[in-house]
Amino acid sequence: MDVHGRIREILAETIREELAPDQQQLSTEDLIKALKRRGIIDDVMKELNFVTDNVDQELPSSPKQPVCFTDRQSTLLKKTNIDPTRRYLYLQVLGGKAFLEHLQEPEPLPGQACSTFTLCLHFRNQRFRSKPVPCACEPDFHDGFLLEVHRENLGDGTRMADSTTMLSISDPVHMVLIKTDIFAETTLVASYFLEWRSVLGSENGVTNLTVELMGVGTESKVSVGILNIKLEMYPPLNQTLSQEVVNTQLALERQKTAEKERLFLVYAKQWWREYLQIRPSHNSRLVKIFAQDENGINRPVCSYVKPLRAGRLLDTPRQAARFVNVLGYERAPVIGGGGKQEQWCTLLAFLCRNKGDCEDHANLLCSLLLGYGLEAFVCVGTKAKGVPHAWVMTCGTDGTVTFWDSLTGHRYLHKPINPDEPPAAEQPKPLYPYRTIGCVFNHQTFLGNCQPSDSVETCVFDLNDESKWKPMNEEAVKSVCAPGATTSLPPFPPLCASTIDASVTSNEIEMQLRLLVSEHRKDLGLTTVWEDQLSYLLSPALASYEFERTTSISAGNEEFQDAIRRAVPDGHTFKGFPIHFVYRNARRAFATCLRSPFCEEIICCRGDQDSLYTQSCCLQGERVFLLFQSGCLLLIFSFICLIALAATPSTVLNRSGEGGHPCLVHDLRGSHLFFYY
């Protein structure tokens, strides 16, 4: 509604019209009357819905949705849950300045695509996102976020939290700034932890802050810009604390955290010395005890993992693996050469950017599998050619060890090779791409591999055998990695349902692809005719592909083949090129397809009556939700001059075609095209 802007305009108009020359100021009552006359207060009250339900009646697993004031044009909020018995922190972002990297950025013309900034927030299990604003030296941020402070485990649920109670809440407001370019590529600009409790010692419970945002990775010591922030408590505090009390509390918390981190560092050094005494060659193994986050701060690796429940967004562990798999993979950027840049992102930064390195994927997948009750660990080791890598391992109650590749979603059973067996003895052949393993860890456990060889093939994953795995003391790990153990530990955000309408987005992508194909064929002097009925028949194939990716089970292929047999006219061939993308840029997807000679042959086919069929599907509907982006499957089909069928990747049709003629099977990157002559 842009309430602030409308109020400012009306008050300015009222002062000009009604302020007599002999009057110095208008009273509050006069201003309220002016707002009422113009209907502003009525409009605001229509937008608010005060909830008076008893909080104790709500189930713990379904908390109230947090409130976020957003642009009505982008999101229509049917109901705003504001409980007058709760305490809220109203955080306003009142613009930015000194984003010097965009000093020469020209002001975008109306309707012109431009790079944008988006501010993402997380506070006490609530997540918010600002409206995108054009990148500029002084970005025009003007958003307000209503953060519920009195949320959980604060005593009597019907009593409003007072200043003393809120002073004990050490959770910061995590702010992540994301840049999105005109090609929808995202970049992590800054990650900042805002200490909000200074407002408890401010007069009237209102304070203004200037927050300097620092860069990430190698630029973590360089300022990228400044945000002007206003904090306000709602309802207003009856009694504010002195600033001295607030500062003393914050200093005590920092001192306690520093002491815990110092003691853990001393213990980690001692553990490492003992580990090297077992075998000097251990010095070359990838035993990762600490890792740098996006702000360049060293944190224990166990603090990057925590049991995470996805609610009804992801139903099974394999769905969780599929969800993590479609998040983009991108190594941390490095200036110049010198190898890989060290950067393990916090979960909020990873989710908001929607892409990250293999460690980020492994940490998220391990957290989700722990939430499903599995005994999961992150493994740190190498792949082929000694490339550092991270993946996930689960240990079953029957001793089964399963590797989960967080980048591909593939699962591998591990059966160790016995090096003492005679050469003629049959040994299991490993299918996984991993070569060595240095350590495994989760939120409570850290284990270093102390077996004679760190080869994954010969490794025995009996984690209770201290002669094979040297453990860290669990109490020492919990002292710095347990939730709430230290104030420097970033809280884990919840997963949120996608904001994308899958059906609408699918139709838009399909229309864009049709236009691109038609233009491409027109440049070649070819005409294009679209057949909607056959395009619709391709939907089961898309669903089957995604189902197989998620469950490793193929289903529904028989019905699809039967429908295609009936739809394809005699004397024609049905060819298909299935391909999967993790972005929604139709032009980029089309360019990728053209790089394949198989797809180019289909798109550029010639005939008396050429017809092309497309079907795109954003797999993000009722069962699979992807964060701020959806994985898409695209199928492009054409008619040429023979009869053919397309089958799913796991289907193998080992028989002759119709009439006893031979059948040619062509393998295309995991997919099979079956041509019947």
Automatic annotation (TrEMBL):
Q: Where is the CEP76 C2 domain?
A: 81-238
Q: Record's InterPro entries?
A: CEP76, CEP76-C2, CEP76_C, CEP76_N, CEPT76/DRC7_peptidase-like_dom, Papain-like_cys_pep_sf
Annotated keywords: Cytoplasm, Cytoskeleton, Membrane, Transmembrane, Transmembrane helix
Domain Centrosomal protein of 76 kDa C-terminal positions: 499-618
Where does the record place the CEP76/DRC7 peptidase-like domain? 342-472
Domain CEP76 N-terminal, residue spans: 1-48
Q: Which residues form a coiled coil?
A: none
Q: Where in the cell is it found?
A: Cytoplasm, Cytoskeleton, Microtubule organizing center, Centrosome, Centriole
Q: State where it is primarily located.
A: cytoplasm
Q: Which residues cross the membrane?
A: 624-647
Q: Name one Pfam family in it.
A: CEPT76_peptidase
Q: Which family does it belong to?
A: Belongs to the CEP76 family.
Q: What does the protein in this record do?
A: Centrosomal protein involved in regulation of centriole duplication. Required to limit centriole duplication to once per cell cycle by preventing centriole reduplication.
Which protein is depicted? Centrosomal protein of 76 kDa
Species of the source: Bos indicus (Zebu)
